[in-house]
């Protein structure tokens, strides 16, 4: 029987066995891999190493400068962001304080009629018993919250904090002065919650006219003194002329008439 040629060649070749052991079993020494034997030449490696070493300092310096520039830019951005945040926080705190003050002023303004009733009761000696304790407690509470009462008889009139209901002339004052308080005013800090309603006494017109006439009278006296000597000199000159005409003889007078 004939054997095919392909099958016969396969049987002759057999399996290929490669010895990849790193240690030689006969000598016991380590084997060198075949790939390492085909390494590049030492001259090429040396040239590549020298060129890489020459290019490395310049590249490192450029990279370092770039990194420094980026760090400076990021630092400036952080400083600007921090300043914006600080300003924002201050603005929020300021707005919050303004809203709180406005809300507090609105609440206190609603309590002012009650405080007026307490004041009127004190004036008429009706603030007694439990009503007195409640009234004083309320007044101390609003005082702790920053509400301050103002407006007394004898204060100088200030249109920014006083509301003048009427003004009467008086010779006892030189500046507008409060002589009666109809309704006290209240302040909270520098903010006027309610102006004080008062009656104001002002200087009389005679006092104002007298103060204005004093300079005019002084000028008139000086003018009169200057005019008096001039009139006296004119009168003396007329008297001398009349005396000369009376002493002349009649002939002279006729000649003068001719």
UniProtKB/TrEMBL annotation:
PANTHER family, alphabetized: GRPE PROTEIN, GRPE PROTEIN HOMOLOG, MITOCHONDRIAL
GO MF, one annotated term: unfolded protein binding
Purpose of the protein: Participates actively in the response to hyperosmotic and heat shock by preventing the aggregation of stress-denatured proteins, in association with DnaK and GrpE. It is the nucleotide exchange factor for DnaK and may function as a thermosensor. Unfolded proteins bind initially to DnaJ; upon interaction with the DnaJ-bound protein, DnaK hydrolyzes its bound ATP, resulting in the formation of a stable complex. GrpE releases ADP from DnaK; ATP binding to DnaK triggers the release of the substrate protein, thus completing the reaction cycle.
Organism field: Thermobifida cellulosilytica TB100
Protein family membership: Belongs to the GrpE family.
Gene Ontology cellular-component annotations: cytoplasm
Protein name listed in UniProt: Protein GrpE
Coiled coil: none
Keywords: Chaperone, Cytoplasm, Stress response
Entry-linked Gene3D superfamilies: 3.90.20.20, Head domain of nucleotide exchange factor GrpE
InterPro entries hit by this protein: GrpE, GrpE_CC, GrpE_head
Main localization of the protein described in the UniProt heading: cytoplasm
Name of the encoding gene: grpE
Ranges of compositional bias, category Basic and acidic residues: 1-34
Subunit structure: Homodimer.
Annotated GO biological process: protein folding
Compositionally biased intervals (Low complexity): 42-57, 204-237
Localization (cell): Cytoplasm
